[in-house]
Automatic annotation (TrEMBL), chain A:
The keyword Transmembrane helix applies. The lineage of its organism: Bacteria, Pseudomonadati, Pseudomonadota, Alphaproteobacteria, Rhodobacterales. Keywords: Cell membrane, Membrane, Transmembrane, Transmembrane helix. It is found in: Cell membrane. GO terms for cellular component: plasma membrane. Pfam families: BPD_transp_2. This is Branched-chain amino acid transport system / permease component. The chain crosses the membrane at residues 12-32, 39-59, 65-84, 96-113, 142-168, 199-218, 224-243, 250-267, 279-296. GO terms for molecular function: transmembrane transporter activity. The keyword Protein transport does not apply.
Automatic annotation (TrEMBL), chain B:
PANTHER family: ABC TRANSPORTER, PERMEASE PROTEIN, GUANOSINE ABC TRANSPORTER PERMEASE PROTEIN NUPP. Keywords: Cell membrane, Membrane, Transmembrane, Transmembrane helix. This is Beta-methylgalactoside transporter inner membrane component. It is a multi-pass membrane protein. It comes from Pseudoruegeria aquimaris.
Amino acid sequence: MMDILQIFLSESFWAASLRIATPLIFGVMGALLCERAGVLNLGIEGIFAAGAMAGWMAVWLGAPLWLGVGAAACAGAFFGALHATLTVPLGLSQHVSGLGITMLATSSSYFLYRTALPDVTSPPRITPFQPLDWPVVSDIPFIGPVFFGQTALTWLALFTVLAVWWLLARTPLGVALKAVGDNPDAVNAQGLSVYGLRFGAVMAGSALMAIGGAFLTMSAFDAFFFGMVNGRGWICIALVIFASWRPGRALFGAILFGMFDALQVRLQTEAGAVVPSQVFLMTPYVLSIIALVLVARKADYPRALLQPWFKGQR
Amino acid sequence: MQIEPRQSQNPLIGLLIPVASALVALALAAIPLAFAGADIGAAYQQMWQGVFGSRFAFTEMLTRATPLIFTGLAAAIAFQARLWNIGAEGQLYLGALAAVWVGTGMIDGPQVLMIPLVIFAGAVAGGLGMVGPAYLRTRFGADEVVTSLLLNFIILIFVQMMLEGPFKDPMGLGWPQSEPILDSAALPKLIEKTRIHSGLILALVCAVVAQVMLTRSTWGFRVRAVGANPAAARHAGINVNRTLMGVAMISGALAGLAGVSEVAGLKGYLTADLSPGFGYTGIVVAMLAGLSPVGVVISALFIASVFVGADSMSRAMGVSSYLADLTVALSLICVIVGGFFGRFRIRFGQGAAA
């Protein structure tokens, strides 16, 4: 018991929680944008991989880090545009199209990586984002290492939450975006473009997902591995439902998840001799399912989620 | 330009779409091939040779198609009821785990007893793997897409735990693998000196039974009614939740059989890398088949050809074998786009305004 208390009091635990939460924050915000506009994007798992690959590859080819982030965002927006084309004007099954995007984005990333590096045994490394070194504030005990010792991408993630919240709650565009996920006929009657809004939301959301993937290769690690996304995308889809499509609650969910994951790693080293390590490795996925079950009935689904809308049809 | 639904369904279109989609996906694979700097003509020829070039190559393709028929059927039946079983990968491993549990020495007996027992155990384990998510959906409204997907990760970690713990082969030189399946529990080989085994026969039987059940029985009618319109089905007196649970059990059982067939027919023991994503590929197989069980057999043969052909091409020409996964993903995208043109027609110009 004392051990757990000690974990919660350590700076490294809270710093790790926020670090683990960062890719999820990007992913959750991306998925939230898509779903608020009425489009479920199950391409997320593959878009994470594409972002991780594109960002890493750009930097490995000599681009500066931020250009790598831009490359990841472009890769994400590309697959987002493909998903939007299939699900918005063509109105195809969002489930199947999303799974197709995941397969396509994952396999093309792996194929490109293998084509560029046919016979490397250990993945080549890049110099990733470094923890920021702020004057004065970095030296504050506890707060300093936890918040100000993060890399720039973590700050970008927190800023993204603020931006998405502001967009949805405070701007006319946000109102239109939410309306297109609830009642596309009303949006159309207002003379706004249902297709345009949904396309934009899915592309922007997918770009955010890809930046979440880029965090993995450009901040959390410094190389690209096959299978490194490891279900993070699906966890984001569960977290969005858990958050009832609200940005603030989504941030809370992602950080809570980061805490459990950080705790899991620490308990594993403490209790590793007694309990098989796999029990701890399972917990993130088990927790996601439990979270989903707890809120499923109460969840405030966007009313037009999964429903195609065709121009000129009622 | 205007999009309008087709008034009548031409049965030929239903056949044409998957064939055209497969061909378009194969043609699109030329883009990554060109990107990798390969001689495109030679690459396609090598792929063809890799499947049809020899008797052995062809049996390898059939061996690869076997688990895909099972997972394709699992997806097809579930999707017909609009139950999104994306967890076939996990159910496959549950089936394989159950097969090695009963088939590696827990009991021993004659073949006529052991083989059905191993098959039954794997089917039940796989079925239970989907009954869980289906229950969470019908009881709590939790989306089965997400739960069945997440369950894949949980089950794979669980299998790794078992392979490092109670299921570990003490003679395995420290590798995390199960003990070998007893000879009495192994599915017999079909042809000497090839890897093709009787799991294929089982898969074909399942496909025919599934086809008859879906199209000719009242159960099949209930499944399709629930898939087409759950509210109307409920109105007509169909117990929607019970139908969904039944579909979940059967769909999961079929995925479990893929695991049984791989472990008891092909590999002989269980490792954590038994399946290179057969569960997920099954979704593509099912979609390419238009969710028809007999169609699943044909599309599984096509997808298996892509994998085996690309493997052979990859060995000969040094192009990454991820080309196969890429082609399979393209097939899925092509077939759903093709489905759109099957259901709708696009009109251009003046006539559209009317």
